[in-house]
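Q: For a teaching handout, I want to show students what a protein-ligand complex looks like in token form. Below are the inputs, and the small molecule is heme C. Please produce the holo structure.
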Amino acid sequence: MSSRVSSRLALSAFAAVAIVACASGGSSSSSTPAASAPAAPVAAPATASSSALPSGVTAAMVATGDSIFHTASCQRCHGMNAKGTPRGPDLTDSQWSQISGTYPEIVQIVTVGVPKDKIKMAGAPFGMNPRGGTNLSDEQIAQIAAYVYTLSHK
Ligand code: HEC
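A: Here is the structure, written as tokens, with heme C included.
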């Protein structure tokens, strides 16, 4: 008897999770803990649209990366809207100067930075230091990169 009750409880808990998962597709202001939830099996669509997130990237990572981008150093050179300043390029367009714009490349370039003598844009006064000159963790960089990826892949 009690086992039937608990399995029904488990079922409704599952339904609630499924509803939350669907609802979080858009602008996610939920405070879902990113790392602790087990990854849900994702059915890869046969024809991925350009707005699909890269593998390993979740909407929660994008939301967290959004807030880190705007509190870390990034916005000082790339702008609060990420559209660029004289110190750093626009990250919202489809033009890339250092990379081709894939998610792993964004993670990599934010981790290692861009030395001044490798900068392509004219007039940038400083190189981009590794991790944007901050002490961001690898996890935080994965989150920032997820956010940066979505800016140009809409
Ligand atoms: C001191 C200024 C500065 C800071 C701070 C900075 N960047 Fe940059 N960033 C640059 C410059 C300069 C480039 C190279 C642009 C070029 O080669 O034309 C660059 C390149 C990039 C690129 C590759 C762009 C491309 O077109 O290939 C990405 C992605 C990027 N930065 C993300 C970030 C993120 C995320 C942060 C925060 C963790 C950050 N940057 C912090 C100045 C900065």
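A: Two things your students might notice: The chain has a mean pLDDT of 81. The radius of gyration is 19 Å.
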